[in-house]
Amino acid sequence: MKRVILIAYGELTTKKGNRNFFVKTLYENLKAKLQGTPCEITKDLSRMYLTFEEKDQDLILDVINHTFGILTYYFAYQMENDVEEIKKRIVDIMNLEQFQTFKIETKRSNKDFPIPSLEFSRMLGGVVLKNIEGISVDVHHPDVTCFVEIRRDFTYIYTKPMKGIGGYPVGTQPRGMLMLSGGIDSPVAGYLAMKRGILLDAVYFEAIPHTSLEAREKVITLCQKLAKYTSKIRLHIVPFTELQEAIYKNCESSYCITIMRRMMYRIMERLAKKNHAFAIINGESIGQVASQTLTSMKVINEVTCYPVIRPVCCLDKLEIIDLARKIDTYETSILPYEDCCTIFVPKHPVINPNLEAAKKMEESFDYQSMIETLLKNIKTISVTDVKKETFQDLL
Ligand code: ATP
Ligand code: MG
Questions:
Q1: Ligand 1 mean position to 183 CA, how many Å?
Q2: Can you say whether residue 95 is alpha, beta or left, with left for phi > 0 and alpha for psi between -120 and 50 degrees?
Q3: Ligand 1 atom nearest 289 alpha carbon
Q4: 76 has which bridge partners?
Q5: Is the distance from the beta carbon of residue 289 to the nearest atom of ligand 1 less than 6 Å?
Q6: CA-to-CA distance for 168 and 297, rounded, in angstroms?
Q7: Taking the CA of residue 369 as centre, how many other CA atoms within 13 Å lie in the half-sphere pointing to its CB?
């Protein structure tokens, strides 16, 4: 019997007018991820069908469990729409299960099939009862429900629904620019943004020699881990040293973080424009540090009119850590390499900055031309979830 995974579209089905676009995007995403494998993928209005060889099961599951837009899927057995074959197969399939009570549920979308659903369920129930000892039917609380879907080309039989990761397929929203530091929060923010269908580019601000190449490598690893949820992520590496040093030379130390973050947002906006992105995404969480109080956020946000999406802004750190563990970024994030933000942290950063004061300090040096120079020196690499060696040249 051929093994097939049936994919239910879940939340996608609520997107009436856009449904075809959502389904097509999910289909293309899966196709891209399965390229080079012997799996076949087809779709109709309510299901996607992924046919595979038993030996590739782990690979397929890994792909499914990293693809947004899949709410539920089923490991199914595929067979001809033939009554006798179905009767025979259902016994084989139920023999693999551990149960005492069961129920059969038939869905017959193929109305050419000669037996109505209810009648067919009863008939198959009788066949199972006759062939397996010590079991009984319980239509209310069965140990196992066996689903029989009779569709146009084939019949599918399965028992357990499996949970996918939900969300919308990546690419159903336009691009967003993720500020990716080596910390715990920003990879989680990127994951959650992709979950809503946003295509991601990542941006890393580095301040070599104050930050190390190991810190950069760590960000690339995080990017690779995020890339598992899409096909590839472009990572833009911003040489931030000169501008950051100028900030610390020219501004009051308590305002340095506020101003540094205003500079980051300015650069993010320029990068968003250049890369046809519609939002800035970051891992800010309300109240976590001085620059993330609401008053700080307002002063920092003032430099851009782009939406700044903060997917983890209302989560506790422990909730963010749980997610980081789930998406396998936590262990990388806690590696000890310094980030440009942590290195320059002043002793007493301002918690309620004053906008006019910040603007005045910025006027004291020519940050615009520094931003122009820095924009010309950004390195962009394409990160997939393949092995690290690919990036040795850059490191
Ligand atoms: P994280 O918040 O990811 O754990 P962090 O705590 O070092 O890292 P914060 O100081 O809280 O970072 O900064 C808030 C957000 O600003 C980060 O989540 C990230 O989105 C962005 N950010 C900070 N530093 C950088 C950087 N060097 N490059 C890119 N983005 C950064
Ligand atoms: Mg943080």
A1: 6
A2: alpha
A3: 11
A4: 4
A5: yes
A6: 29
A7: 3
What are the sequence ranges of the domains in the chain? 2-164, 168-394
Q: Which H helix or E strand runs over 250?
A: helix 241-250
CATH number for the domain formed by residue range(s) 168-394:
3.40.50.620
pLDDT digits (tens, 9 = 90+) for 211-246: 999 999 999 999 999 999 998 999 999 999 999 999
What helix, strand, coil percent values describe the chain, rounded to 5? 45, 25, 35
CA distance 136 to 125: 9
Q: Please name the fold of domain 2-164.
A: VC0802-like (3.30.2130)
Instruction: Say yes or no: CB of residue 217 within 6 Å of ligand 1.
Output: no
**Is any atom of ligand 1 closer than 6 Å to the C-beta of 296?**
no
CA distance linking residue 233 with residue 175, whole number of Å: 11
Ligand 1 atom closest to residue 240's alpha carbon, by position in its atom list: 27
The C-alpha atoms of residue 48 and residue 9 are separated, in whole angstroms, by: 8
Could you count the other beta carbons within 10 Å of the beta carbon of residue 263?
23
Question: Could you read off the pLDDT of 43-91 as tens digits, one per residue?
Answer: 987 889 999 988 888 989 999 999 999 999 999 999 999 999 999 999 9
Q: Is the pLDDT of residue 390 over 50?
A: no
> How much of the chain exceeds pLDDT 90, in percent?
81
Q: How far is CA 340 from the centre of its chain?
A: 26
Evaluate the CA torsion angle 334, 338, 339, 341 in order and state its sign. positive
Q: What pTM was computed for the model?
A: 0.91
Identify the band that residue 394 occupies on the pLDDT scale cut at 50, 70 and 90: low
Question: Nearest CA to 151 among 64, 53, 78, 211?
Answer: 78
